[in-house]
Amino acid sequence: MLDADFFRRWLASVAAAVDREADRLTALDSPIGDADHGGNLRRGFTAVVAVLETEAPAAPGAVLTLAGRRLISTVGGASGPLYGTLLRRTGTVLGEAPQVSEAEFAAALRAGVAAVATLGGAAPGDKTMLDALVPGADALLTSFAAAREAARLGALATVPLQARKGRASYLGARSVGHQDPGAASSALLFEALADTAEAAATGEAPGE
Predict the structure, then answer these.
(1) CATH assignment of the domain containing 124
(2) Quick check: is 103 in a domain?
(3) I need a labelling partner for 20 at 20 to 30 A (CA). Which of 6, 11, 186, 196 fits?
(4) Count of domains in the chain?
(5) What is the rounded average pLDDT of the residues 11-16?
(6) Structural domain contains residue 206
């Protein structure tokens, strides 16, 4: 079972991964976006960690809902509302239960991904974050490790695609050959999730 502390540690691991990879995410965003993806997410997840240190939600759903609200309020552009919606919707579905099963979390996350798709009007294959989120969330039904790998491969698979949604879609065929930065950052969420689960199983902190 997964408790509130698990989700706090997951989000802290996401923040560390985003901080580590911020320059790479911005470099991916430069040719097909606004060259601000890494910095925006770094600011957002730093704020998430800060608010979770100040407030102490007792339920997994409350942790994710609070994190989602903070992302929406601190991150500009499209990534704040999209990631914020992902976490808020996932948290809402989880409700107020003090612990949730991996299957419950997987189902809630899929609902969160569906909310992102609705908000952005996108689908897998459009060269967006959904190309990593959808396979990652689907594979979470198998294991955390499977989700990490599915999201990683989904992000890499955006390279040959032509963008049909978002800022990159304005470039048409010139968007081909570039990895989508949102898919790359989405893969980091699943990487951090698997790391957190593996650390919990061994009693270590993620990244040790």
Answers:
(1) 1.25.40.340
(2) yes
(3) 6
(4) 1
(5) 98
(6) no
Helix axes 130-139, 102-120, angle to 10 degrees: 160
Which one-letter amino acid corresponds to residue 51? V
| Backbone phi and psi for residue 200, each to the nearest 5 degrees, phi listed first | -65, -35
Virtual torsion, Cα 11, 16, 17, 18, nearest 10 deg: 90
Residue 93, in any domain of the structure: yes
Q: Would you state the pLDDT for residue 207?
A: 52
Residue 128 φ/ψ, nearest 5 degrees: -135, -175
Question: What is the reported pTM?
Answer: 0.93
pLDDT for res 36: 87
What pLDDT is stored for residue 61 in this prediction? Answer: 98
- The answer to whether the CB of 34 falls within 8 A of the CB of 167 is yes
Q: How many CB atoms lie within 10 A of CB 21?
A: 20
pLDDT tens-digit readout, 152-207: 999 999 999 988 877 777 677 877 988 999 999 999 999 999 999 999 888 766 65
Q: In terms of Cα–Cα distance, which of 13, 9, 48, 5 is closest to 192? A: 13
For 104-136, give one letter per residue: b (16+ CB within 10 A) or e: bbbbbbbebbbbbbeebebebebbbbbbbbbbb
